[in-house]
Amino acid sequence: MMTLRPSLLFVAVACTSLAAVAAHAQPTRDGFICDTDKHHVVIDHAADRALRYRAWNKPHSVDRKPDVEVRGGTETTGGTDPCVSTDWSFKRGNIVYEVSDSAACTDGKPPRGAYGTVSVTINKEFAARYWCVK
After folding, report:
1. Around Cβ 115, how many Cβ atoms within 10 Å?
2. What pTM did the predictor assign?
3. Cβ neighbours around 15 below 10 Å, total
4. Residue 48 half-sphere exposure toward CB, CA atoms < 13 A
5. Helix (H, G, I), strand (E, B) or coil at 48
6. How many whole angstroms separate alpha carbon 34 and alpha carbon 62?
7. CB 39 within 8 A of CB 130
8. HSE on the CB side for 61, CA within 13 Å?
9. pLDDT range class, residue 108, cuts 50, 70, 90
10. Please, what sign has the CA dihedral across residues 64, 66, 72, 78?
11. CB under 8 A, 24+ apart: contacts of 57-61
12. What would the pLDDT profile of 29-52 be if each residue is shown by its tens digit?
């Protein structure tokens, strides 16, 4: 019989849980998970409680090291019903990643099943927008 130390068991369960949640692309108690056509994005808090943005380029799995990780972003909730949203912003050098948990009140028509967006700006110029889609 194989015995796992509690810390290894926690890591295994955490990775499995994160992968399962990412596959279903649902908001989490502690943050937000966005599954786009090109990326898996997770907004959460690191062990030190710092707000954190992590992204994996598809087909990379969330159980490996993220392709991008940025700590120390901001979180704001605002708007009026039906356009209330939580938005996160993270800056890494000249790149800003902005994530929203709402697709209902955005520019353009969101695709079917959209529940959020990820926008990227480089040198204050729009670079890309990705829809979080179920």
Report:
1. 20
2. 0.75
3. 14
4. 4
5. coil
6. 12
7. yes
8. 8
9. confident
10. negative
11. 61/19
12. 568 999 999 999 999 999 999 999
Mean pLDDT on 21-26: 40
Using alpha carbons, select from 13, 84, 8, 88 the residue that is nearest to residue 45: 88
Q: Which two tokens stand for residue 94?
A: 């000249």
Sheet holding 74-78, edge to edge: 74-78, 85-92, 95-100, 114-122, 125-133
Secondary structure percentages of the chain, helix, strand, coil, to 5: 15, 45, 40
Cβ neighbours of residue 98 closer than 8 Å, sequence gap 6 or more: 87, 88, 89, 90, 117, 118, 119, 120, 121
Amino acid at 131: W
The Cα–Cα gap between 20 and 7 comes to 20
Token duo for residue 127? 């670079």
For residue 30, what pLDDT is reported?
64
The answer to whether residues 15 and 8 touch, using CB atoms and an 8 Å cutoff, is no
Structure tokens, 60? 């990379």
Domains of the chain, by residue range, sit at 27-133
Supply 46's token pair.
């690191």
